[in-house]
Design brief:
The protein is α/β, with parallel strands linked by helices. The chain has twelve helices and 13 strands. The relative contact order is 0.18.
């Protein structure tokens, strides 16, 4: 009886293995770099720039259908590691431990940088000061001493901005008092616009490309200029300051493809890192990793338009 059970178990395993391979084969046959359908899981702090990229990509390649799924960074990475997501857009690279898990599965993730983003610190408009030292923020997040900051507000406890600021402050957990979180960047912006002495932490893209219903709310907040830990000047998260490495809260953005074949993930990554994709990044207020080229028309003679 035991021998029979082992045989049945082996047959079932082989059947499932073949079916999974067949499904993977069918996916790769029905999908190319320019056609088919794919889900792209996106760090919710940078959703707008990905929405822009996908809209132009689909408008250019009519046989491509890309579904954007915004999630927190923790959820996104977990989905990728558990093979629930194959293409993701994130604000960090994979760690050596995470890469090791893919190596065991014989999968080599394709990591493509496409933009440099800034994490913005915001406050209610008409506050006395629009300048802030990064050390003041770090001291508050470390629970040190008195501060003019009443509280710091994040979008989500599992977000990339929380992880970034924890790494910067070198803490495992934030103080239980004075640090708050909501669910979205829009909620952070709205809360800060209504409360004095609160500092909000959001992705720059949510400010440079607000949704229509957030335009008026954005007018009620100030984007603070930040002084770095080893600097004497304050810098705003502008494209120029990010490009010159002056803004102290900048981060790289990546698209990570774990499809394992030449599918839409590869096509989208090439598009985002290419000429058109980089122009979209530039227009969005973020910094492209490559400066898009400019074309000039050279005329052989001067035309006098006033004749």
């Amino acid at each position: 009886m035991l021998k029979y059970s082992k045989v049945v178990g082996l047959v079932l395993f082989v059947f499932l293995f073949v079916m999974c391979n067949q499904k993977s084969k069918n996916e790769s046959e029905n999908e190319t770099i320019l056609k088919g359908s794919v889900d792209v899981t996106v760090d919710e702090t940078i959703k707008q720039i990905v929405d822009d990229q996908v809209a132009v990509f689909e408008g250019t390649y009519y046989d491509a259908k890309i579904t954007v799924k915004p999630k927190s960074e923790v959820e996104l990475i977990n989905d990728l590691l558990n093979k629930k997501a194959k293409v993701v857009v994130t604000a960090r690279k994979l760690t050596n431990e995470e890469l090791g898990r893919f190596e065991k599965s014989k999968i080599k993730p394709r990591v493509t940088p496409f933009a440099v983003d800034g994490i913005a610190l915001i406050a209610k408009k008409n506050n006395n000061d629009t300048l802030i030292a990064l050390k003041t923020v770090i001291d508050f997040l470390q629970g040190k001493g008195d501060s003019k900051i009443k509280g710091i507000v994040f979008d989500n406890p599992n977000s990339s901005t929380v992880r970034y600021m924890k790494e910067l402050a070198k803490v495992k957990d934030f103080p239980s008092a004075g640090v708050f979180s909501f669910k979205t960047n829009d909620e952070v912006i709205k809360f800060v616009s209504e409360n004095d002495e609160m500092i909000g932490v959001v992705g720059v893209n949510w400010l440079s490309q607000p949704s229509p219903d957030m335009v008026e709310t954005i007018k009620k907040i100030d984007v603070l200029s930040v002084k770095g830990l080893n600097d004497n000047e304050y810098y705003s998260p502008s494209q120029t300051n990010i490009a010159l490495n002056k803004y102290p809260l900048a981060r790289d953005l990546f698209i990570i493809n774990c499809q394992g074949y030449s599918g839409l993930g590869m096509g989208l990554a090439s598009f985002m890192a290419g000429e058109i994709g980089q122009r979209i990044v530039l227009k969005s207020g973020l910094m492209p990793v490559k400066t898009p080229g400019r074309k000039f028309n050279i005329r052989s003679q001067i035309i006098n338009d006033k004749e």
